[in-house]
Amino acid sequence: MRISTRLVAFAMLLAATPVLADPGAPVSRRDLTTAERALIAAKAYWVIRTYFAHAAGLPSGYDLEHEYRVRLTEALAAPNRRGFSLAMMKLFASLANGHTGFTDQALIEAAPDAPYRIRRVEGRWTVLRSALTTLPPGSVIATIDGEPVDSWLSPRRAYVARSSAMEVDRAIFGSTFLFPDSFTLGLVSGTTVPINLKATHTSLLPVAPQQDRVEVTRRPGGIIVIRIPNFGEPQLEADAVAAVHQATVEKVPAILFDLRGNGGGNTPDKLLSAIMTAPYRGTIVETPQMVAENDAHASLDEQPPAFSANMLRYGPGRSLPKAEAYSGRVAVLVDGGCASACEDFVIRFADGKRGQIYGEPTFGSTGQPYFVDFPELRISFQVSTKREFLPDGRPFEGVGVQPNQPVPLTIADVTDPRDRQLDNAIDLFSHSP
């Protein structure tokens, strides 16, 4: 088979092209043999070519064959496991998809936890939470080791697999395996803050919301807020549904779902059934369709396509409301941390015109990944098998769901002990019809 021949040839190359300098400390775990490296790289190439559903969304001129050859050369010539994994991460990140990525658990575990949470707020790199008294929330970062932040981060961004630059921004400072053990942050105030990632830090301040339970709070005006941290655990959806049913019994006039930071899990169909009062549609899906004869014909071309040219398209499905669904007013509050199944929920919520969507654009990636795991090596990767569009055909990947009522997080919000973003959304919700 033609593809297999190329893979074997690639795997046997031990080219002398130098590996990029490691942007962090080495990993103290068993190295991988040449055979193990070749197996992982070959399997990755085959899975990407076969199942990756987002070829149409790649930049014009993207060349998988070239990208793979370059990263394979780096991966096989790498002096250690860390260098191999970084090369593979860069290959997967080049596909620019939030459900496609490479993970080396040994590399992740060897990296320290970040003693801060940092992302862009109002266009500036801002500390959201911190365990360091020298780096309080609201601090704005101008430089790292004397270099402008974006310039310093630029080579490291190439290892972070996300569907948009905005989501790379959200993830980059938490990817401590890409950082040196020690560096210096320069603040716009003129202060410099030395960072030692290997130092022992206390819990982040202020304390982050609970990530293992649904929280229900009552606000003035008859509004209840139901915060759902994720849809990965069935009990969380069940608890949210129970809260909705209780609101129905108590004749609560309005519910706001706080879905900020909800990383997804499984599409919460039961929760949708509990609140939707009009028909609603799901996404339009495209997924590669493999037909052996078609692929055989394509293999005879001088330049066979790198990805499957046959795409199966289906959807959007349509769901009908339940008679017993909650009939009061409903709204949702989202941000860039609302991803995957969380976005599945918000897309259907919006299509059924159930209520207002407050906050910031969502993550912009959902799909069913094809997983490959090497448990004995503690290495895995995943490749997204479906590309989704909004029910009306508009793009979704890398775009996300746009709020009807923008409620952006501001630097002033970060420094306020209250949750001002939530308060602002509730205020808008209270005064909406």
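the 2nd protein, sequnce then structure:
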Amino acid sequence: MQVDAQLPYYSRGLFMPRRYKVYWGGRGAARSWSFARAILIMGSQRTMRILCCREYQKSIADSVHKLFQDQMALMDLPGWQVTKREIVHSTTGSSIIFEGLRYNTNRIKSLEGIDICWVEEAESVTKDSWEILIPTIRKEGSEIWISFNPDLEEDPTYQRFVVEEPPNAIVEKVGWEDNPWFPSTLEEEKNYLYRVDPDAADHVWGGQPRRSSEAQILHGKWRVESFEPDPHSKLWLGPYNGADFGFAEDPTTCIELWIKRVPKRHGEIASQGILHVRRESWKVRLDIDHTYNRWMRDMGKAITHRVIRADSARPETISYLKRHGPRRITSVYKWPGSIEDGIAFLRGFEAIVIHPSCKHFKEECRLYSYKTDRDTGEVLPKIVDKHNHLIDSARYALAPLIRARKTQTTIYAGHSYAS
């Protein structure tokens, strides 16, 4: 039987023979819609027994039973007959059954002859449920299909199928951008959430697993918003430029920052104001002789004449750049506790506003974290040394202000230190 149906491009993997087919990510990707369509097409062509399950299913209403009915109507597929407990094809004899994992252990263990097991909303499936389910799906050539929006990074499903990808598997992250029929209503909701709460938006729409908010160093401090600094206004201080160096695994970075002072009542000025991240440069495996051109491309030609405060651990790189490009680049003095002082200074701003073009800085703000105890989850007073290259660049750029604050002098002595 030939079936003509619309499916997203990523769905091609559903028709390839694999033991595991894992599709995960943010909302709006049409994963459930695609899984249901693929199963209905396959079941219309040959005899199959399909198990659809999730961790909790008190009644059939909690399952994807209604989703299958909707897709059968949209595709105008003949032969499928719907009952209260299952869906059966009158010609091929294929059947689709629905079960919950948590409270149906014995029923799950007794299932035989399953060709495809689709685990929907798999982010909530426990380690125990996986250990019961996987050996149950034992027919030769049987497949386990998994769809989910990740919740916590340490959840068993995310760890088992994304972090530790199993053999003979297709594991793909798909999101709203992979859905050619992403509706305008959801587009508006997505854009609104990114505007007002980028942390939540990265989880809901970006498909990023949540981490302990207590461990996120800049949690609740940053947001993404378009802006343009006014260098002629007394309220805008800057630009401040900083750089960090890497190569094989770590990126070479450069950043442009501005500080906007916030007038309070009676003309008073907030102690630090709002930090604005206007431009960034981020590149792995950037050769030293290409660095200056890359910075001019990303940061603008004005970078040639600005003070750039850079990581003092690479004096030879600073010396080369000073002779071949930005002549005012200089190393930053690192004092004991300079990282902690820098973090405290960044958190001292009323907010950190990130221009939408600075995608890597936004990602670092989301991921830069303290270590946590693996057993207790307790946040430890130790910083994870990754996701910090642009943040380090920001600390270097602001180093004179951080030192001034540390020695309790006025941080706004005149105009920008980096102008």
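Residues 9-178 form a domain with the Rossmann fold fold (CATH 3.40.50.300). Residues 259 and 275 are 5 Å apart (CA to CA).
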